[in-house]
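Review session, final week

We close the course with one last complete record, chosen because it touches almost every idea we covered. It is DUF2157 domain-containing protein, a protein from Rossellomorea aquimaris with 700 residues. Go through it on your own first, then we will talk.
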Amino acid sequence: MKKFVSLTYLFGVVFILASALYFFASNWQMFSRLEKVALASSLILLFYGAAYLLDRVLKGAHFLSNWLMLSGVISFGLSVALLGQLYNSHADSYLLFLIWAIPAFLFSLYTRYSGFYVLTHILIHLAIYFYLFPSSPFAHWTLAHTWNAFGVGIINTFLFLIIKKGFIHSKPLLYLSLISANLLLIVTAFDNEYSFFFTLFYVFILGVGVYRYFHRETSIFIILSIFGTGFIIIKMFELMAQYVSSLFFVGLLLTAFLLLAGSVFLVNYLRKYSSPLHWTKTIFVASVTTIASVFIIASVFGLLSLLMVDVSMVTLFVFATVFLVIPSTLTSWPSPVKYSLMMTGIIIGMIASVFDEFSFVMFFVLAYVFYVKKQYAARFVFYVLFQLNTAIFLGQTMDLGAHALLVVMVLLNVAVYFALNKKHVIQYGAFLIGFFAFFSLTAIDLSSTLHIIYTALFFLTATGCVYFFKKQDRTFYWVSSLVFWFMLIVQLYYDLAWKLVHKSLLLAVLGVLFLMTAVYMDRKVGSDQQSQSMLAGKRLGILLIICLQAGWIGYQVHSNETLLQNGETIQLELQPVDPRSLLQGDYVELNYTISQLEDTSIDDNGPITILLRENQQGLHEYTGVYKFNGQWNAPYEKKPGDVLLNGKVTSSWDNNAQVTYGIEHFFIPEGTGLDVEGKVKAALVKVSDKGDGILERLLD
């Protein structure tokens, strides 16, 4: 029972945090701005205060006070998002994550707690991302963005090496920096004038990493192998799109053969090492098999399409089965060659069977291969392909909709799971596929009743599996169940079947129940946790960091309230749309008549100040006068009634400039976007004497 204590505490804390996020994002209107700020501040004090209190009361459960301190920083981020919501600042602005990252970074330096390292890493990368792309994902990707990604990738590489040297102790940060470095360096290798250089650089870094870690650390080697495999395949498709020709596909086929030949020598080299390298060899063979299979399949279909060869799907299926699949199972060829030809034949056969709708034949092929091949990894892959073919077959023969098909997949995998012995490799596949199909049932479009039933059943099942498998020490199963559990919490945020505020109240109740249960269990059996408290000997410094957070919130509230009370009121024309922010809930995105400035000589991005004057309709409009990079475009002397508004030029073309003013988002209660969209004509904006604007309300 002691194993359940920390897990129950974790669920309780996560539910309380998720409840707060949902509650703030629902943009409730029954409270005033200051009341909302007070609630958010109380949440921060609740977590920090509970951390200090429990650190003294529960001497054997310092892990809980550490979690609560981390939750306090997370709740600070929610409060920062709430301030943006209350004063209608940009949704998901990089400033939100940058400000949030500051206390997380200070805590990580001061406490050396792994959770703060990870949170800081995530927040800094989010801040960089939203700084580069403030409006839409990867919009207007330029060479400057590529160099930024390259620089951040190099920093992550050095961070990984620093952790490996032992200067920072955090396994999660080690893997996070490794994954981030690979993702960013891969991004630089595509679609730019220096892609050849970036490609060579990434291949060099990847090669050094694979050579260094393939016989030392299996987990790092697996990560590098996955990224290397994906990179090679994506690069192949990029080159194929650029150089489509029969010669290219012949070269691709030759490359696959050379890759297989080289892999045979490397596999023989790996055999010189002892048995601990079994998984290293398996991952290597899997990577080579994936790359070679994709290359061969692309070559076959590419040549057939270019040469206009009229081959029936049945003929293609017979060729793949007789000349690829069967020989690969009956010969003693080296494993990379054998599995590459086998996978190539199976994939070609599945594609052919889908086009001509005879997928039932593939069951016999897969059953034959499954019977012949005894290796665990191979059987796992073939079971996944069997499930895929089952879904295709059911869709072709019974014309099942998504709902019925997912139900069948859940029941089928549940039956397979219970029919097999404990720790059987197919049981792993049945567990993952069944759970994923079950999770999909909570996300597809169904009636409200079915949706609630599936969501409740999934929650109960995932929670039960976490506890059950934790008790049995079956790490794969309880960790997988916990991942699906968290996926449900995230999915519920975007679920439109019921209101965020209702989900918030439910999660709050669940959080309290789990915490009460954890306290009861803790008192009954005691906690044998040996974690070290981050508060030990550091309370004063931590208190100073908390005071910095409180000071920033107080400053922001005071400055914004002062602007709202003393700023000059102007009206601007607009046109809204209706999205949802990651942390701040629903909002309407506003496009003003002053968002595009015509007849300018601006050819760069940067800060701008425009002159507004009131017209006969009571609306403030652009006068054609602006200051860009400290220079006015025309002589200007301020007159009574003039309003100067600060903005930022985000793009320019043909003497036109796109400008944002920090007042482009107006947060609204959940689900009321259609009531606002198209019905408002103007926005009421408060502008300070320094030119900063705050969006106060919308006007019909």
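Two points worth writing down before the exam:
The chain has a mean pLDDT of 84.
The radius of gyration is 30 Å.
Good luck, everyone.
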